[in-house]
Amino acid sequence: MSAVPLIGRSLAHEYPGPLRAVDGVDLELAEGELAAVIGPNGAGKSTLLKLLCGLLTPSGGEVLLDGRALGKIGPRERARRVAFVPQALGALPEVAVAHFVLGGRYGHLGRWSRSTPHDLDVVRVAMEQADVAELGERSLTRVSGGQLQRVLVARALAQEAQSLLVDEPTSSLDPEHQLAIFTLLARLAEGGRSVAVVTHDLNLASQFASRIVVLAAGRVVAAGTPDEVLRAEVLEPVYGAHFRYGRLPGRGGGERPFVLPWSG
Fold first, then answer.
1. Domain spans of the chain, in order of start
2. What is the pLDDT of residues 83-107, one digit of tens each?
3. How do residues 196-216 score in pLDDT, each as one tens digit?
4. pLDDT for 128-163, tens place per residue?
5. What fold is seen in the domain 6-86+162-261?
């Protein structure tokens, strides 16, 4: 049975208002698993990832990292264990892309330590995996939205963390790079990492995820395999009756469901 390094128990979080964005969510992320988190806008998906990586403090419940309370783990150790890929950055620093990706090594460096040849090699590989190697000398402020998303993935890969939490990594990407990013995330999971990815693309979730978790109004309303979740009786109470359903050959054999938004 796979180990479960990252666990959220009865997680809740309120924003001022008050707005309860997450309301009693249980989520376990096992080694070797790619879990997709889906749901409508405002369902609490991004907030859930921020709780799991420690960017937000739960107003209820707890996050455990290898059995330890996440809040009691220092930032450097946490950075070595859990990596978070945000949808975007609020403000972009005027630094070269390679230097920004090197910042992902924060947890592996001492307070006054300089980067080593090993750190630079890890950064090089991460940038190659995210298909941004040719952007290394370019200023972060001079990349496109899609390129920035891939740079953010590269920085998280440079952390070499066991658990990877990824928030809508393909929203600005062309179809080729959408498939490339999900293929990379699936490969990392197959290599033993724990991966959770928030996505609005139900078909990417179907192709690549071993488990799909559906959030609505801050609560888990369904969870299971793509075959168990991507069905009218599960999706229509959450999204409405706007889909057409079918099946196509899947990765590694067998079939996977597909879901098309359809009017009429």
1. 6-86+162-261
2. 999 988 888 889 999 999 999 998 8
3. 999 999 999 999 999 999 999
4. 999 999 999 999 999 998 999 999 999 999 999 999
5. Rossmann fold (3.40.50)
